[in-house]
Amino acid sequence: MRDNRSEQEFVLEVSGHRAVAAYQLEGERIVFTHTVVPPEIEGRGVGSRLIRGALDAASDRGLKVVPQCPFVRAYIDKHPETRDLLA
């Protein structure tokens, strides 16, 4: 997983396909706007790995999370240990 800061997206490449978690930085907050996992790699936990890495990166940078994206919101709801990141 890598943070493509110039495009404001976290990227995870699997089997030649790119999963993306797009974000916008707003001061000390990171707003996750949408997540895309190509159909070719769906159902393999790629989205969850991507969001876990993105949340870890946000935490490492001291950012608070705003989960506008339903996938990110669902991930946080299922993983209570990440709720302290919420803005």
In summary, what is this structure?
The chain has 87 residues and is an alpha+beta fold. 28% of the residues lie in helices and 36% in strands. The chain has two helices and five strands, in the order ββββαβα.
Distance between the termini: 23 Å
Shape: globular
* Order of helix and strand elements from N to C terminus: EEEEHEH
* Strand elements, count: 5
Structural class: alpha+beta
What average pLDDT do the residues reach?
Answer: 97
Helicity level: 25-40%
Radius of gyration: 12 Å
Strand order of the largest sheet: 1-2-3-4-5
How is the secondary structure organized here?
Layout: E1 2-4, E2 9-14, E3 17-26, E4 29-36, H1 46-60, E5 64-67, H2 70-78
Parallel strand pairs: 4-5
Antiparallel strand pairs: 1-2, 2-3, 3-4
Could you walk me through the main structural features you see in this protein, from its secondary elements to its overall organization?
The chain is of the alpha+beta class. 28% of the residues lie in helices and 36% in strands. It has two helices and five strands; from the N terminus they run ββββαβα. It has helices spanning 46-60, 70-78, and strands at 2-4, 9-14, 17-26, 29-36, 64-67. The chain has a five-stranded mixed β-sheet. Strand 4, helix 1 and strand 5 form a beta-alpha-beta unit. The longest helix is centred in the middle third of the chain and has 15 residues, at 46-60. The two termini are 23 Å apart. The model has no long low-confidence stretch (mean pLDDT 97).
